[in-house]
Every structure is written in structure tokens, then in C-alpha cells.
């Protein structure tokens, strides 16, 4: 459990909050690259309780600016994207991708107002079909986390996201909590507890995996170890990369997964689920089928679109349950979203009763809280204090057969 104070410290990310400042030190995914066309419509982006606008200019460069026009605050998401800049529709001021005001047509000729005004703009990096942004202020951005999938051709990667109506830490904790996979997701797993079949081989063997945490320069590795009735050991190593990236293990060679919950604000989260095939092209349907994921919406920017909220118990289907389905929720991914939203917008962690199955959850909270202290003391943050070989980070799903009896 956490004190109410630490729960606030852990979860709140708006401007001025300590955790918000911590998250802003790292590169984060903002939107899919395909959302921005050259001279096309700008996109309004919400991150960490703040509003931004992203656009792709005539030369293909991406601008990421504060949403409000520096003149009188009109949304630049309404702007006209033309001739290497975004023009506010109110009085026609024009801003370029570097945050310079390049035209102020509402001022008399010869006015030097343009040269005196700037808009906050933020460094971006396009990789893996995603536009990543660094929202830190006052220094140079750190090393970009060039995860291995970011070097693949775009057709090998499915970057997509869903909107969750709860705090980002609930999403993060779900990704690090291996024991729930055997319980919540059991309808999608092989029913036989001894089974070593499928992408989640061995996960049905135990509801109570043993955890082993190994600290890493970028975060930690959480191994959840299960043992089958015949003695086969199953190690599933989830890699946690600060501030919220989780590489999820499965047995598949052709579908790898990284997921993270990125705060839109304190009570809303954009859950990114990035899957890729290191060996060839991949689409969302193939990725879902390979993982027995259930049917998600085809909208790549919100693949979770529940028809019911808490008033209808998230559309849980009790008929399905009577017929043997464990949760009554129509897709594996949605099971996570439903349980996390049901904890409330920001779960009160002072009321919990944690056990051994919560080892990785406890570790990630401690690590994040420690970072707020480091930030306050002016110390370098983990993951940003030394070069990291991000492309080497891989989650491992290991099956160790029992030694043969003599
Ligand atoms: S508010 Fe944007 S030009 Fe006036
Ligand atoms: Fe889950």
C-alpha cells in the first residue's frame, strides 16, 4: 500500500507536479506518423495534462508546438498548414516548426513584433511509425530510445493505441503484473494447466508465479517463474524501461510486443500497443490472431471502444460466462482495460492489501517515487545518466524442461 501523499505523488503528472517533471525528461510516443500529411490537417495532442498541436510542413518536417496561438490563444489545431508554417485562422499569424513567428499580417508594415515572439516548440523524432516528443525544458533532449523495432520497415510494425478512462499508473501496473494473466485472461489460454502450447505457453500452470527482479540501467527485468506439474519451469521476463515502457514476453517469433500507458491527463491514458514482426510484414488482425487477442476495433487511434461504462458493468456478458468464459469480456486486451477502469479514475492505494504476487508492482512504484526524489535533489535520473543499448532490450519467454530422471 501507499500513503495518500505518495499516491498523489506517483499518479499526478500535470504541469508543476514532480512526477510530471520526471516523465517530461524522457522521450514519449505522441501520435502515429501517418496522422500527419505534408501541408495536411494539424493534430491536437494532449499529453500530461497539456495541449499541443502537431503538423507536418511543406518540407515534411514535423512541428510540435503549444496549442495556443501566441497572439491571443486561439487553437492552432484550427490553423491552416501552408507554405512551411501553421497559420492561425483568427488574425493570420504564422508559425514554423521551430516555433518562430514568421508572419504577423495583422500588424502594420515594418512592425518587428514577429521577431520578438516565439511559441514553445518541442523536439520530435520519427521512428517505428510513431512521432515521439521530448517535453523537457531548459536542456538538450537525452539519447533517443532506439528500440529494435524502430529500425524495421514500417510494414513490419503495428503501432496503435486505445483510450483508457483511468490513471496511467493503473495501466503500467497491469503490464507488470504477471499473475493476473493466469486468472483474468484464462479464457484465452490453453485450459490444461500442464500445457506448453501457444504464445503464453506455461502461463496456465500457476496463478502464483514467483518473481525475481533484476535492476537494469534503464529500469529492471521482472521474471515471473512458473512450474508445471511435470517440473517444466517457465520464465517470463518482462523488461521495464523508464519511464513506462514494458516489453511483454511471448513464445512467438513473428509477433513481438511493447506496451505503455502514456498519460493524456491524470484520469485518462493513451495505451500504446506496438507489435512487430522482425521477419516480415505484420497487420493488426494477424498480430491479434497470433496472440489469441480477441477482436479489437480497427481504429488504430482508439482500438478499445466499449459500448458501456460502469453503469452497465462495462458490458460484461454474463451469458458468455454461463457458457464457460471466465471474464465475460469480449477481447483479451479489453479485460485489462475494464479491470483497470473499474479501479476508479485514480485508485486509492492506501486501501490495498498487497502480497507476493505484487512484487513487480511494488518495485515500479518505488522506482518512480525515487525518481521524484532524485529530480528534487538535482541528481541524474536512471536511464538518462549513461548510454543505453536500447536495441538490445528483448523480453524473453523461456521454457526449461526438467532434467531427465536417471
Ligand atoms: S489569435 Fe492567432 S493570430 Fe490572433
Ligand atoms: Fe493483462
Itemize the secondary structure elements and their pairings.
Layout: H1 4-11, H2 18-23, E1 27-32, E2 43-47, E3 50-56, E4 62-66, E5 80-81, E6 86-87, E7 94-95, E8 101-103, H3 113-116, E9 124-127, E10 130-134, E11 157-164, H4 168-176, H5 179-183, E12 210-216, E13 219-227, E14 233-241, E15 245-248, E16 256-265, E17 268-276, H6 284-290, H7 318-322, H8 332-342, H9 359-376, E18 396-400
Bound molecules: FE2/S2 (inorganic) cluster and fe (ii) ion (FE2).
Fe (ii) ion (FE2) binds next to helix 5.
Description:
The protein is an alpha+beta fold and 406 residues long. It folds into 2 domains: 27-134, Rieske Iron-sulfur Protein (3-layer Sandwich), CATH 2.102.10; 148-400, Naphthalene 1,2-dioxygenase Alpha Subunit, Chain A, domain 1 (Alpha-Beta Complex), CATH 3.90.380. Helices cover 18% and strands 25% of the residues. The protein has helices spanning 4-11, 18-23, 113-116, 168-176, 179-183, 284-290, 318-322, 332-342, 359-376, and strands at residues 27-32, 43-47, 50-56, 62-66, 80-81, 86-87, 94-95, 101-103, 124-127, 130-134, 157-164, 210-216, 219-227, 233-241, 245-248, 256-265, 268-276, 396-400. The strands form 4 sheets. Strands 11, 12, 13, 14, 15, 16, 17 and 18 form an 8-stranded antiparallel β-sheet that branches. A 4-stranded antiparallel β-sheet has the order 5-6-7-8. A 3-stranded antiparallel β-sheet has the order 1-10-9, with no helix packed on it. Strand 15 (245-248) and strand 16 form a beta hairpin. The radius of gyration is 23 Å and the shape is globular. The protein binds FE2/S2 (inorganic) cluster (FES) and fe (ii) ion (FE2). Fe (ii) ion (FE2) binds next to helix 5. The site of FE2/S2 (inorganic) cluster has 9 residues, from loops.
Amino acid at each position: 500500500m501507499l500513503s495518500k501523499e505518495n499516491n498523489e505523488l506517483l499518479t499526478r503528472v500535470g504541469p508543476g507536479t514532480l512526477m510530471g517533471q520526471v516523465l517530461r525528461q524522457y522521450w514519449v510516443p505522441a501520435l502515429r506518423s501517418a496522422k500527419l500529411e505534408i501541408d495536411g490537417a494539424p493534430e491536437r495532442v494532449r499529453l500530461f495534462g497539456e495541449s499541443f498541436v502537431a503538423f507536418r510542413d511543406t518540407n515534411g518536417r514535423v512541428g510540435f508546438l503549444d496549442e495556443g496561438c501566441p497572439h491571443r490563444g486561439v487553437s492552432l489545431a484550427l490553423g491552416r498548414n501552408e507554405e512551411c508554417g501553421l497559420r492561425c485562422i483568427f488574425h493570420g499569424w504564422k508559425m514554423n516548426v521551430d516555433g518562430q513567428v514568421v508572419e504577423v499580417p495583422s500588424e502594420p508594415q515594418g512592425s518587428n513584433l514577429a521577431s520578438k515572439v516565439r511559441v514553445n516548440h518541442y523536439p520530435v523524432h520519427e521512428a517505428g511509425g510513431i512521432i515521439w516528443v521530448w517535453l523537457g525544458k531548459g536542456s538538450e533532449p537525452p539519447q533517443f530510445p532506439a528500440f529494435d523495432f524502430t529500425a524495421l520497415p514500417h510494414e513490419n510494425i503495428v503501432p496503435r493505441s486505445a483510450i483508457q478512462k483511468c490513471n496511467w499508473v493503473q495501466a503500467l501496473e497491469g503490464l507488470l503484473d504477471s499473475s493476473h494473466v493466469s486468472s483474468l485472461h484464462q479464457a484465452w489460454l490453453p485450459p490444461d494447466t500442464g500445457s506448453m502450447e501457444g504464445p503464453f505457453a506455461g502461463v496456465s500452470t500457476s496463478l502464483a508465479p514467483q518473481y525475481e527482479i533484476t535492476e537494469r540501467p534503464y529500469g529492471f527485468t521482472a521474471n515471473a517463474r512458473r512450474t508445471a506439474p511435470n517440473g517444466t519451469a517457465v520464465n517470463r521476463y518482462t523488461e521495464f524501461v523508464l519511464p513506462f515502457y514494458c516489453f511483454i514476453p511471448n513464445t512467438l517469433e513473428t509477433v513481438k510486443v511493447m506496451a505503455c500507458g502514456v498519460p493524456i491527463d491524470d484520469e485518462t491514458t493513451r495505451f500504446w500497443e506496438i507489435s512487430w514482426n522482425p521477419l516480415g510484414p505484420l497487420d493488426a488482425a494477424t498480430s491479434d490472431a497470433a496472440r489469441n487477442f480477441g477482436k479489437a476495433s480497427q481504429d488504430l487511434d482508439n482500438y478499445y471502444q466499449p459500448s458501456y461504462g460502469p453503469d452497465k458493468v462495462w458490458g460484461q456478458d454474463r451469458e458468455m460466462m454461463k457458457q464457460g468464459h471466465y471474464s465475460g469480456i469480449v477481447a483479451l486486451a479489453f479485460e485489462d482495460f475494464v479491470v483497470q477502469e473499474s479501479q476508479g479514475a485514480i485508485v486509492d492505494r492506501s486501501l490495498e492489501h498487497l502480497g507476493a504476487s505484487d512484487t513487480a508492482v511494488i518495485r515500479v512504484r518505488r522506482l518512480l517515487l525515487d525518481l521524484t526524489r532524485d529530480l528534487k535533489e538535482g541528481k541524474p535520473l536512471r536511464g538518462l545518466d549513461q548510454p543505453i543499448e536500447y536495441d538490445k532490450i528483448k523480453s524473453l519467454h523461456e521454457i526449461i524442461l526438467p532434467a531427465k530422471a536417471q
